[in-house]
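Quick start: what a row looks like.
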Amino acid sequence: MTLTKRQKQVLDYLVGFHNKNKYSPSYEEIAQALDLASLATVHKHVGTLERKGFIRRGYNQSRSIEVIQLPRSVRTEVIDRAVNELPLMGRIAAGKPLESVEDRETISLSDFTRSKNAFVLQVKGESMRDDHILDGDFIVVEPTQVANNGEIVVALVGGEEATLKRFYREPAGKIRLQPANSEMAPILVAASDLKIQGRVLGVLRKY
């Protein structure tokens, strides 16, 4: 889908800002950087980019603009780079949350993603077995702080424990982390006690 010159400028700024700072700009920063007259103008361009499928915004979250599609000219520069190896960052609980520990290993995953920021975690536990994610599997994760209902995410609970679950928003500011295992109960936490660290792109399994 085509973009106007100004829409492409906004999208280019979002990409460049995130690559530099690893988080999204505020609406005020977008307006200042692009010399836009008002925040309403920023909201208009951001809303158009979202409707066209180039970005998405987290519900009721600040700095939650996420680029999910790029025009070809930007994609060629940012995404079209072959990825030979990705860092194996540690292991992730699929049952009871456990502390995530970094590892100095790598794994070749160029067939799964061209995102240069993607990483790999090894699953421990059986809570996602009905989604065909089993103990010992490796998951390819795309870093993000934003998730939509139903996505499989890596979530940090209480700032200390990471777990792998499906993400759902509930009333009264609650988040439900749903296992894919009928024998296990969901984890219900306040949104303020949860931090999304990434969404699952794929699964690798050794036999």
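That is the whole record. The domain at 86-204 is CATH 2.10.109.10 (Umud Fragment, subunit A). The chain has two domains: 5-78, 86-204.
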